[in-house]
Amino acid sequence: MFPASCFLFLDFMALSREQKQKVVEELKEKIDRQKAIAIIDIGGVKVKDISQLRRAMKEKDCELKVSKKTLIQLAFKEKRIETNVKELEGEIALAFGYEDEFSPFKTVHNMSAQVENLKILGGIVEGRIIDKEEAIVLATLPAREELLAKLANVFQAPISGFCQVLQGNIKGLIFALSAIKK
Fold first, then answer.
1. What string of pLDDT tens digits covers the 182 residues of the chain?
2. In what order do the strands lie in the sheet with 128-130?
3. Residue 95 · residue 38 · CB < 8 Å
4. How far apart are CA 69 and CA 121, in angstroms?
5. CB 104 within 8 A of CB 38
6. 100: region left, alpha or beta (phi > 0 left; psi from -120 to 50 alpha)
7. What pLDDT score does 5 carry?
8. Contact 59, 15 (CB under 8 A)
9. Between the CA atoms of 55, 57, 14 and 84, what dihedral angle is there, to the nearest 10 degrees?
10. Are 133 and 67 in contact (CB under 8 A)?
11. How far apart are CA 169 and CA 157, in angstroms?
């Protein structure tokens, strides 16, 4: 199996100026729609693994876009995102999250456990650039539903404890009355 870099190199060699402009416009449109962007390194990742990542991302209402660093940099510059993509090592891809801020990071992080060369390099959340460590923290946070369940449990615990105390008093009274009756 050939690494993705072979296909990416061949794909972008033949792009004309108009095609490159079209890619930049497409990137800008995706930047406008996104809630978060995970910047990832796909150097050395096999095409089948990238296809699997694309499918996993699509299930989470995310999208993976592989492009040249110069085109990504142009789109970021036009959208006033101050980062230098050209300084990043490897072959860059952008994982756009349209549903929530965590999905692209979680999906890539989960997939990177299975795919050796897939790495999160950083990201953009709410217009703020985050580094690799912050991106990994976002990826390892529990899901929204899990956090809401934990919060509900926190609210329920005192009420449940109070009910247990009240039941204990009633049980004690019943035990005392049953002892007197005998």
1. 445 444 444 444 567 888 888 988 898 898 888 889 999 999 999 999 999 999 999 998 899 999 888 889 988 888 888 888 888 888 999 999 998 888 899 999 999 989 888 999 999 998 889 999 999 998 888 877 888 888 888 887 777 777 777 777 777 777 777 778 76
2. 62-66, 92-97, 36-41, 119-125, 128-130
3. yes
4. 14
5. yes
6. beta
7. 47
8. no
9. -160
10. no
11. 19
Q: What is the pLDDT of residue 53?
A: 92
Reported as half-sphere exposure (CB side, CA atoms, 13 A), residue 141 has a value of 16
Using an 8 Å Cβ cutoff, are 95 and 104 in contact? yes
Annotate 96-134 with DSSP letters as a single string: EESS-SSHHHHHHHHHHTTSTT-EEEEEEETTEEE-HHH
- pTM score, whole prediction: 0.71
Which 8-state DSSP code applies to residue 143?
A: P
CATH fold of the domain at 4-141:
Alpha-Beta Plaits (3.30.70)
Which amino acid, residue 94? L
